[in-house]
Amino acid sequence: MYLLIFSCIFAATTKTINMIKTKKLIIVMGFLGVYNYSIAQNVAIKSNLLVDATTTLNLATEIATGPKNTLDIYVNYNPWSFGNDKCFKHLLVQPEYRFWFCERFSGSFIGIHAHAGIFNVGGIDMPFGLWSQLKDHRYEGEFIGAGLSYGYQWVLSNHWNLEANIGAGYAFIHYDKYQCKNCGKRLKKDQNRHYLGPTKAAISLVYLF
Known about the structure:
By secondary structure, the protein is α+β, with helices and mostly antiparallel strands. The chain is 22% helix and 57% strand. It has a single domain (43-208), classed as Beta Barrel (Porin), CATH 2.40.160. An eight-stranded antiparallel barrel has the order 1-2-3-5-6-7-8-9. The chain is elongated, with a radius of gyration of 28 Å.
C-alpha cells in the first residue's frame, strides 16, 4: 500500500515538474519570437545608390519610434582625391524624422531633416550648370541646416525594399575660397552663404532585419 502511495506521489511530482518545464519553454520561445518580430519590424539599414555612383561611402540606419514613425540617421563620407586637380572630400550627417501614411517601411512618407557637415571641394564640373565656380576653384568650409522631404518605399521581399526620397530646405554655409585644389593661395576668407534648394536625393536599397 505504501508503495502504491509513493508511486502516485512520484508520478504527480514528475507530471508537475514536466508541466513547469513546458511552461518555461513556451515562455522562452514566446519571448524570442516577440523579440525577433520586434527587430524585424523596427530596424533597417540602407545605402543610397546615387551617392554610391560618386564613390562616396554612405550608410543609413532607420529605427521605428512608433506605429507610423521612424528615425532615419544618414551618414556619407568621401575622403578621395581624383586626377586633374579634382576633389570631392566631405562628411555629411543627416538625421530625419519620418511619418508614414500607411505603415512604416511601406508606401509614402514625409520627413523633416537636419544636416551638418564639412567639405573640401574643387575642380568639379557640376551638371546643369550648378555651382559653376566649382570647376575652377576650391572651397573649404562647413554647413548646417534643415529641410523637408517626401519619399516612397516599395516592398521587394521579406527583407528587401527599394526607397526613393527627395527633399529641399535651407543651409548656412561658411567657407574659404582658394584659387585651385593644389595651390595654397586663398582668394576669400570667412565667407557666408545662405542656400535654399535641394538638400537630399536618394534611390536606396534597404535591408530590413
